[in-house]
Design goal:
By secondary structure, this protein is mainly alpha-helical. It has helices at 3-14, 17-23, 26-49, 83-88, 103-135, 143-176, 187-193, 197-204, 212-215, 226-230, 240-252, 267-270, and strands at 53-54, 70-71.
């Protein structure tokens, strides 16, 4: 691709949609972007011809701009293969993305997301109360304070159980009456993101048995599986045990470690 074409692409991308429509540059934009994609694919095959190996953890920011990365363990020790042979090599391709949830599916996702936020906040409060309880000795002078904390812990646990039951009721109404879909609502991904295994187990039970392995490996609108979602964000050592059990749990449900997201990252690459 020429430098002039690159400049044209940058110029067009900086223009808003209205400007493009006014100046009739929409077709030019599409043509140049398609040419850029073709050139990047050609670059990728050229690297493959001289024995570069694709690293699937970094593919590109999205499906239409695959910034392929390669490792070259041995430079030109093997003969250059033909372009046809390079084309025959299967390259990692980011997944096709499903549409955003709408209607009852969007309502289902919102319901689970709100409940997940509340539950995680409540679990954090519970953790702090339990830590506070441990800081008090069994001396008589601490008895009143310990009893107060015990009471607060008991009430909070009751509230968490009630909130869980309320969520199950609301989800069942959405699924049975409004025909919301567990898979199309991406609620398994949401629950995995919050590391709430109880929600995952409840929700997967609402998916037909023959679809459950597929469901636990569905990609969301960001190209992520529930396992990707469980490993998102900054991992803290204090939370390592919870992270570990979430990953083990998802793997036990049939989650794949090898699916790449739109950036070409497997769950390990996400971590």
């Amino acid at each position: 691709i020429t430098k002039e074409e690159e400049k044209r692409i940058d110029s067009i991308r900086n223009d808003g949609t209205d400007t493009l429509m006014d100046t009739g540059r929409v077709e030019e934009k599409k043509s140049l972007e398609n040419r850029q994609i073709d050139c990047m694919a050609l670059d990728s095959r050229t690297f493959l011809r001289v024995d570069y190996k694709q690293i699937p953890e970094v593919v590109g920011p999205d499906k239409n701009s695959p910034a392929w990365f390669f490792a070259l363990p041995e430079f030109f020790l093997d003969p250059v293969i033909s372009y046809e042979d390079a084309v025959a090599i299967n390259m990692h391709v980011p997944p096709d993305l499903p549409p955003n949830p709408t209607g009852a599916n969007e309502e289902l996702l919102s319901t689970v997301k709100i409940a997940s936020n509340v539950r995680n906040a409540e679990m954090e409060k519970l953790r702090k109360l339990e830590m506070a309880l441990e800081s008090y000795t069994f001396e008589e002078r601490h008895a009143e304070r310990r009893n107060e904390i015990h009471h607060r812990i008991g009430n909070l646990r009751k509230k968490i159980r009630k909130d869980d039951e309320d969520l199950k009721t609301n989800v069942m109404i959405l699924v049975n009456e409004k025909k919301a879909s567990i898979r199309k609502g991406f609620v398994l991904h949401c629950s995995a993101r919050f590391l709430i295994l109880e929600y995952i187990d409840f929700l997967i039970e609402l998916v037909p048995k023959y679809e459950r392995i597929i469901a636990i490996n569905d990609v969301d609108t960001n190209g992520c599986t529930p396992l990707h979602c469980a490993l998102m964000g900054r991992q803290e050592l204090s939370n390592a045990n919870r992270d570990y059990h979430a990953v083990v749990h998802l793997l036990g449900l049939g989650a794949s470690k090898n699916i790449v997201d739109t950036s070409g990252r497997t769950p390990l690459g996400q971590y």
